[in-house]
Amino acid sequence: MADFGQALLAQSEGSSGGLLGLVPVFVMLAIGVAVIAGFWKAFEKAGEPGWAVLVPIYNAIVFLKIAGKPAWWFILLLIPLVGMVVAIIAAIDFAKAYGKGTGYGVGIAFLGAIFVPMLGFGDARFQGAAA
Fold first, then answer.
1. C-alpha to C-alpha distance for 114 and 80, rounded to whole angstroms
2. For the whole model, what pTM was predicted?
3. CB count, 10 Å around CB of 118?
4. Which among 49, 76, 59 is positioned nearest to 112, based on CA atoms?
5. Which keywords fit this entry according to its UniProt record (predicted)?
6. Mean pLDDT throughout 53-65?
7. What residues does each domain of the chain span?
8. Which of 72, 14, 83 minimizes the C-alpha distance to 91?
């Protein structure tokens, strides 16, 4: 009888650990949905289709277009180190297109999960691509 109790206890401990392991998955899923929704709204504010955020490569081209950069900059994004610099520059110009400053653009580049939903759902209005 004691073995049955220990086996039951061990089984219940194992199952709760599995559920606890799903918490980070759901948190990351929620963050991903928030970022997608934020970009969707930001794209629509700029007159671009919101669904573009769901299409790989095309979403980067639309992002660059809103930032006032040519589509061929996408190739630069694929080059190690150069791509990081280009992404930061594009994020800064993306923020400026909505009337935000350089700091906000750096925030989009490094803390996009926070700044992109704020931009999309906030009161920022598209003012045109940065010059």
1. 25
2. 0.83
3. 16
4. 59
5. Membrane, Transmembrane, Transmembrane helix
6. 97
7. 28-121
8. 83
